[in-house]
Amino acid sequence: MLPVTERQRTREAAAGVPLGALIGLLAGAAALGVAELAAAFTGPRSAPLIAVGGTAVDLTPEWLKDFAIRTFGTHDKQVLLGTVAAGAVVCAALIGVLARRHRVPASGGLALLGLAGVAAALTRPSTTAVAAVPALAGTAAGVAALLLLSARAARAAAAHRACGDRRGFLFGAGGTVLVAALSGTAGRLLAGRRSVAGARRNLRLPAPSSPAAPLPAGAGLRVPGVTPFVPPGRDFYRVDTALVLPQVDPGTWTLRVHGMVDRPFEITFDELLRLPLLERDITLTCVSNEVGGPYAGHARWLGASLPELLRRAGVRSGADQVLSRSADGFTASTPIETVMDGRDALLAVGMNGEPLPIAHGFPARLVVPGLFGYVSATKWVVDLKVTRFADDRAYWTRRGWADHAPVHTMARIDVPGALKRVRAGWVPVAGVAWAQHRGIAAVEVRVDGGPWRRAHLAPVPNTDTWRQWFLEWDAAPGTHRLEARATDATGAVQTERRADPYPSGATGWHSVVVTVT
Ligand SMILES: Nc1nc2c(c(=O)[nH]1)N[C@H]1C(S)=C(S)[C@@H](COP(=O)(O)O)O[C@H]1N2
Ligand SMILES: [Mo]
Fold this sequence. Notes:
- By secondary structure, the chain is α+β, with helices and mostly antiparallel strands.
- The protein has helices spanning 6-42, 48-59, 62-72, 76-99, 103-123, 133-158, 163-192, 197-202, 269-274, 306-313, 336-339; strands at 254-259, 265-268, 277-285, 296-305, 321-326, 331-335, 346-351, 354-355, 365-367, 381-387, 410-415, 421-422, 425-434, 440-447, 453-454, 456-457, 467-475, 478-488, 510-516.
- It folds into 3 domains: 11-192, no CATH class; 233-399, Sulfite Oxidase, Chain A, domain 2 (Alpha-Beta Complex), CATH 3.90.420.10; 410-516, Sandwich (Immunoglobulin-like), CATH 2.60.40.650.
- The chain has a 5-stranded mixed β-sheet with strand order 2-1-10-5-6.
- Helix 1 (6-42) runs antiparallel to helix 6 (133-158).
- It starts with 5 loop residues before the first helix and ends with a strand.
- Bound molecules: the ligand Nc1nc2c(c(=O)[nH]1)N[C@H]1C(S)=C(S)[C@@H](COP(=O)(O)O)O[C@H]1N2 and molybdenum atom.
- Ligand MTE binds next to loops.
């Protein structure tokens, strides 16, 4: 072997960095591919990146979550998973570079990352010990690939690029890519078979025993730009903590009703469909919605009466909360008093004449008119525990959000849009307003702080839905501020006081500035 000069050594070490990074990335890919395959059997939430991402969601402080929702909106999940993936890429590359010189510490580093994946998977709500398997299997594959590839790369370098040894490395690298790609793809395909999309398609919902009255003619204004009264399913806002959609099979679904009750029971989906089903128009809103924001949606729901189910169980005195739990461990605490006060609280199975979309809770969810979603609208619901606020907290209330969260009276200006330019003359000003279960009695609009003018209100089927409103504005050239406020049917005027969503929902008047030319 030729003597190696200092310069050669430095040059080789530098050249080793990209190769090291490549080795790290290949080992990381093998780890994630094998983990993905294992997760096809143990459930998607046990896949390391998803488990770490889910843990990150749960540990994120409220201010950062607020910022993420505000900045990325409903793309917050993609941004989070992208960040976790980018972190994994950087770690894998660094470990690969380290492995060129120090194989044992590098393997230890990779094993530590794997352990973080194991810890994240095991501490997700509603999991069992098998959730550790994907991260463990992935770590084993990753460490094996790391040791093999760095050993072969070292041998090739030592033999000064003798052809045979370089070939050894290339075979190893090719094999690793193959393992990563095959296991990853197989994992994806197998996981696809867990999808309940087929079960949803085959499901026929029974007719309601209590149908909703037809929507009054004109409930939806035909003003371009105003939200449709019943938005198409894909436009219905979605807010939840699920990084992968829970796939809950109606064939094995049960709902357990227990806790402070005289007669705990469990029902299957077939039994649920045999109960009297109510069809009701109810608008749902999210506590995270900013003034003027998009997190409100309306649907015609089909479901069993929630108070009826609680009466069947026999709520004991002293209980003041229903703690509902979803298949993926999310929980919501709903005041029993509200559920039992005569409003149409539903254990819903249908949305707009179809089974619930998977993203909106298939096969069953709660809907309680008048409460924000986080204290009432548990999707993929599998468990109802009758309890007390003094004893049990829920996912968001544990993080400081309010226990009692009735929706605030809110008017939103849909047209003209903020910062839009409009032609001088008669301009339609229109939008939606909501005060679920109290009802909207008036919407008023003012321009540049002038006198309030009453808007025309579209008819509504009941007090649990949003209401569209409309006004013609004689717009003069210049820049103008439009403000809207609603009055609910108890006579209370929407408060002007600005509040952030945290901890009990945003308040204040929605305003838009427009330029008239
Ligand atoms: N399982 C589960 N259910 C959930 C949530 C969740 O994170 N997980 N989020 C709640 C919140 S905060 C809201 S506003 C509504 C939103 O329902 P949607 O996604 O159908 O619009 O679902 C509620 N139900
Ligand atoms: Mo929400």
